[in-house]
Fold this sequence. Notes:
about 230 residues, Snf7_fam, endosome, coiled coil
Amino acid sequence: xxxxxxxxxxxxxxxxxxxxxxxxxxxxxxxxxxxxxxxxxxxxxxxxxxxxxxxxxxxxxxxxxxxxxxxxxxxxxxxxxxxxxxxxxxxxxxxxxxxxxxxxxxxxxxxxxxxxxxxxxxxxxxxxxxxxxxxxxxxxxxxxxxxxxxxxxxxxxxxxxxxxxxxxxxxxxxxxxxxxxxxxxxxxxxxxxxxxxxxxxxxxxxxxxxxxxxxxxxxxxxxxxxxxx
Length: 229
């Protein structure tokens, strides 16, 4: 079995290229597909033949019963002999169907295994090619560059976190005192608010009618004084 797989992939038994002509993978796959199709067709044909034989056996049995009922013993025995011969053919057909089924199953398993092996070979080649292109020196250089970039970023973040020195000396006690003063002003403590005197309310209430009468009398007196002069 191992040699069979090696020959499929163009290799000799020692793992080297064989000098004897072998099937390529494409031709081997095509040959296997054709064989499977041929086996399926043959199996279907045998199944049809078996169904036909069963029908003929049933017919011969019915014929033998009818002839025996008619007292035609010789003809009835002949029908039974034909029935036995047909049964023998069915047995042979069943054996052929069984052998073909076994062969078909074997080829299908081999085809599945060959496809799996081909896939694994392709994966191994791809992995080998990838590793060949991956230089360890390039990987080390890449990691150094990444670490250097991370260190630079950390240094920048540290520098930004230190804040700025504006050269101004700030007295913390003085600032606290000023803050307390602002809080006191906001709460209305220590603020002198001048009192504004309210206007006095007159105590004498002049009736509207009396006021109008007095005004009319004043106007009349003014007119009389004007005519007298």
